[in-house]
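Late entry, written up from scratch paper. The run itself happened at the end of the previous shift, but nothing got recorded in the book at the time, so transcribing now.
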Amino acid sequence: MYIVLGTHPDIAYVVSCLSCFLDCYHAEHWHATICIIHYLKGTHMLLLVLGGDSIKLIGFTNSDYANNPDT
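Output as recorded:
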């Protein structure tokens, strides 16, 4: 989970699915884990580089407050 949270959030879904089988895993779960390890080894040199003249942070939210018109 440290790798997922700290360095590779792109594998979060796969790791969370595999974590359901920690106490009863089978060969296909082990094979999926090995595929994740191969992915991590193959992408360890890839980076996300931010830059340019200006960086704008744009976000959206659902602000209807559970359909309460008073808030």
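The mean pLDDT is 81.
(Scratch paper discarded after transcription.)
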